Amino acid sequence: MEKTVKITFCGGAGTVTGSNFLLEIDGKSILVDCGLIQGMKVADDVNWDPFIYDSKKIDVLFVTHAHVDHVGRIPKLINEGFQGKIYSTKPTKALALPMLEDTMGILSKNTDKNLDKIYSAENIKTTFSLWQGFEYHEKIQITPELEVSFLNAGHILGSAMILFTYRGKKILFTGDLGNSPSPILPDTDKVTDIDYLIMESVYGDRNHESRDDRRKFLEQTIEDNYKRKGTLVIPTFSLERSQELLFELNELVENNRIPFMPIFFDSPLAIRLTEIFKQYKSYLNEAAQKAMSTDKHLFNFAGLHSTLRSEESKMISTVPNPKIVIAGSGMSTGGRIVHHERHYLPDANNTLLLTGYQSVGTPGRLIQEGLKTIRITNENVEVRAHIVTLTGYSGHRDSDGLINFIEDTQDTLKKVFLVMGEPKSAMFLAQKIRDNLGLDVSAPEQGQSVILTF
Ligand SMILES: [Zn+2]
Is the pLDDT score of 299 beyond 80? Predict the structure, then answer.
């Protein structure tokens, strides 16, 4: 007898952030991710609208990875009575704690929306009491006919695609897909035999520079800034981009590829997360593991200063140029980067290097689009610094990479659903998939449901 499976695109449809999907399968209600929508301001009101499902009725939440746009609304789910189980890989569980605590530090100050009650220490504690970590490829039996496992997504430490096998057919949620080869992570697992694919599409309409090119660009950007005797400011995501950049800078410094200058790693969250990378070293690629066994100081090379305390952070502006400052947040919506941008953007000798996706409406996106005056902490700041974008350090697959990923399982695919991309990017990729691979593809809208027959 045929059975049906229903997928509802509750979040992350037509937009990059806010990943949240409901899968109703074999009598179970299962969520994939419960992330924050990140836009103009982090407390974007739409995050606090009621979920379109009853949180109390969810049996299991599967988490693809620890970025806030995939885990940031878990405390809200708990607050609304979720009592099911939370499953992820082991490193994702370890990384999610500092990520959620950091989010709590920012959002719980907002008492008008009761965010202090949602992001309470109690709700964070409950979250982790329900959370269980698994290895990649370990089989998790949900019902006699439904089995789930985590495949390596190669996007950040512990990141996973979630594979549901039901009555012999396979549904795969990719989460964010890595831009392999990464300097420190193993490549994304190759997948075959998938029937239904729910795939990210952040860079569906663009290709990145190659790995060699991106390293050359980084080196060139550092050298140009050195010659101008400026400060190179790099807003970066605390999780993964920071550690990859440190890894690349470590290599450039140790091979004398760049002139010596102080490098400030000015992100308490990233410093804390870097310690977890050391604990979960076996999840890194061979090159990174080898480098870590011979170089105990990986992520901690000559010239690097990790500025944990805010007094140390304030001292950075007194250090003469040239220098490099790496700070969060990655889209300049908050964190220490904001103060550095206010200080360094007005000077034409300085450089701002953008290495990750900048969400629509964020200060990072406005600067990237060439705005000459930007509002930072209630002040107008002139942008005269050089603005450089380097997408090769993105943690996401580019357009061709996404097509190659699908090609491996093209023969069995019945339908592709494109999610986690701006509409322009998803539409472009959808057309490319239809034209090049002849597959059935759609880019669902927020709240839309589809029924699959098994
Ligand atoms: Zn991510």
Answer: no
Q: Could you tell me the pLDDT band of residue 295, with boundaries at 50, 70 and 90?
A: low
The pTM (predicted TM-score) of the whole model is 0.92
How far is the centre of ligand 1, averaged over its atoms, from the C-alpha of 66 (Å)?
7
Q: Which of 134, 131, 129 is nearest to 90 (CA)?
A: 134
Please give the distance, rounded to the nearest whole angstrom, from the Cα atom of residue 167 to the centre of ligand 1.
Answer: 30
Cα of 71 vs centre of ligand 1, distance in Å, is: 10
Contact yes or no for 14/417 (Cβ under 8 A): no
* CA 204 to ligand 1 centroid distance, Å: 15
CB half-sphere exposure, 97, CA atoms < 13 A:
17
Distance CA 199, CA 300 (A): 36
Handedness of CA 93, 98, 101, 106 (dihedral sign): negative
User: Separation of 356 CA from ligand 1 center, angstroms?
Assistant: 10
User: Which of 173, 178, 187, 77 shows the shortest CA–CA distance to 126?
Assistant: 77
Ligand 1 centroid, distance to 12 Cα (angstroms): 12
Ligand 1 mean position, distance from CA 256 (Å):
32
Residues with Cβ within 8 Å of residue 440, at least 6 apart in sequence: 414, 415, 416
DSSP reduced 3-state for 417: strand
Q: Count H helices and E strands in the chain, helices first.
A: 14, 22
Give the percent of the chain with pLDDT over 90. 79
DSSP code of residue 23: E
d(CA 64, CA 212): 29
Q: Per DSSP, what are the bridge partners of residue 131?
A: 86
Q: Which residues surround ligand 1, an ion (CB under 5 A)?
A: 67, 176
Closest by CA to 272, choosing from 95, 127, 131, 133, is 95
CB 215: neighbour CB atoms within 10 A?
Answer: 19
Look at residue 267 and give its three-state secondary structure: coil
- Using pLDDT thresholds of 50, 70 and 90, give the confidence band for residue 192: very high
395 alpha carbon – ligand 1 mean position (Å): 7
Ligand 1 center from residue 419 Cα (angstroms): 13
CA of 188 to the centre of ligand 1 (A): 14
Q: How far is the CA of 288 from the centre of ligand 1 (A)?
A: 20
Q: Which residue has the higher pLDDT, 129 or 107?
A: 129
CA of 18 to the centre of ligand 1 (A): 11
Q: 């990464």: which residue's tokens? A: 182
Place of tokens 């659903």: 417
- Tell me the torsion sign for CA atoms 221, 227, 228, 231: positive
Ligand 1 centroid to Cα of residue 65, in Å, is: 7
